Amino acid sequence: MISVQVFNDNHMIRARDLASSIKKSINEFHPDIINISMGTRSDSDGELQQAVNYAVKKKVVLVCAADNSGAISYPAFYKDTLSVLCDYKIKQIKNFNVVYNNWIDILAYSGHFSVEIKKRQEQVIGSSFSTPVITAIINNMWSKDLVGQDNLIVEIKKEMSQMQYSNDSFHLKHHHNIVNDFLTSKDKAIFLPLNKEVFALMNNSDFVVPHIASIYDYHTSPKIGKSMADIGYTSYVPNQVIGDMRDINWESNDFNSVVLGHVKEISLLLKKDLLSEIIEKCNEYNKKIYALDLVQNEKKLYKERLGGSLFTFNTPIVGVIGTSSKQGKVSLQLEITRLLKKVGYDVGLMLTEPFSEIIGCKHYWHYGYNASKFSWQEHVVGSNNTMKKIDDEKHDLIIAGTQSQVMSSNMKNTGFIPVETQSVLTGINADCYVLLVNKTDSTNLITRIVKYIESYYNRPVLALVESRGTSELKGNLNDLPIFCLSETDKVVKRIIEFF
Question: SS3 for the chain, per residue?
Fold first, then answer.
């Protein structure tokens, strides 16, 4: 195994330098396989294409990392290479799936690797690190018979198809006919597992409708045995100690309901249908169930009216939006609602989360994780109809939230274009907005999003809120004040002043 440096002193890479390194490696070292954990967004002079052609001529296989953002990258894009992209569904390091009829050839492990960098163990992630694993697998299957084939890439993929990871032998049951039970304040519920959604509920437990009897997590979780109060990030977390899911006493009268977070991914990993198991346990022991994986939007919500007409609203509406996912938009919505209620306002909530009913929201438009797929028109109509139901309740104010980012910073892959959120915002038709930002966001990105909101939706952004801890952005940006989450009272003051 021989390592070749390609980056220049500025840690940049040019197509010309990479192409030269490929040819030089072939001529000097006569390898069978070259692992390329890098790439460029352009090959305008065709030099990388020439290098790939040269490798084919010399019977050298190029195993190339694809761009982590999903953008077209070179030389991975060329058909005579084996291109590797990380896929969140691949949970084990040595697992992979072979892809046909696409420029991507191999889907590989998407998790973290522990590597030594400058005598320190670092956690890294991405196709640059998954690609060497695939290279090692190809190296282990290398043979004289393989080298003798006319098209090495085709033959390698054919052999790898026999080895690939597959869920074909394991299928999750579909529960189309099962509807979640309605939970009230009289119900005593256990919550499991402690994933993103359940964690958000625990940090806003004052909004949770059923009594929180216990909290459980997978037996491998490092959170087991810890108090929720020790790992939560608000003062509203309950004091329960997190238990092992295997220790649930289903015969106990201490609970009559189960709130089950998303378990699809972990079920596929464990090849164990956890949703079906929990449903069966609830049926056997006469417990209610509210499973986030069962939440669906009402069909009548997204049935388009003749001519595509939309409602306008009488209640003032504040939209809570963000520059990315995983910023705590729901927590900010709920904190704004708390503070407004404290000063006497009757506040309605419009959520887009599958746990909306658990915190007392009868009307919601779920388009987050594991939601059904809708066209952009259905998102507009569905969210608009939901807002109409909340508007009819005659609140003083409605706080409406969305999923993920409003505008993409990456236009090189369709998966990064937030059509759903943009459509939902059209249906919500807010009067003003609060924008959550990250401390790592560039001022250029934030400015572009503010301009987009204020031009396309023709409504002002009142404030920026830094999503984690104390704001490192400081002061203001283009005359917009920047607050941290602990300063939500100042955001509320601006909202009240605006209306």
Answer: CCCCCCCCCCCCCCHHHHHHHHHHHHHHHCCCEEEECCCECCCCCCHHHHHHHHHHHCCCEEEEECCCCCCCCECCCCCCCEEEEECCCCCCCCCEEECCCCCCCEEECCCCEEEEECCEEEEECCHHHHHHHHHHHHHHCCCHHHHCCCCHHHHHHHHHHHHCCCCCCCCCCCCCCCCCCCCCCCCEEEEECCCHHHHHHHHCCCCCCCEEEEEEECCCCCCCCCEHHHHCCCCCCCCCECEEHHHCCCCCCCCCEEEECCCHHHHHHHCCCHHHHHHHHHHHCCCEEEEHHHCCCCHHHHCCCHHHCCCCCCCCEEEEEECCCCCCHHHHHHHHHHHHHHCCCCEEEEECCCCHHHHCCCCECCCCCCCCCCCHHHHHHHHHHHHHHHHCCCCCEEEEECCCCCCCCCCCCHHHCCHHHHHHHHHHCCCEEEEEECCCCCHHHHHHHHHHHHHHCCCCEEEEEECCCCCCCCCEECCEEEEEHHHHHHHHHHHHHHC
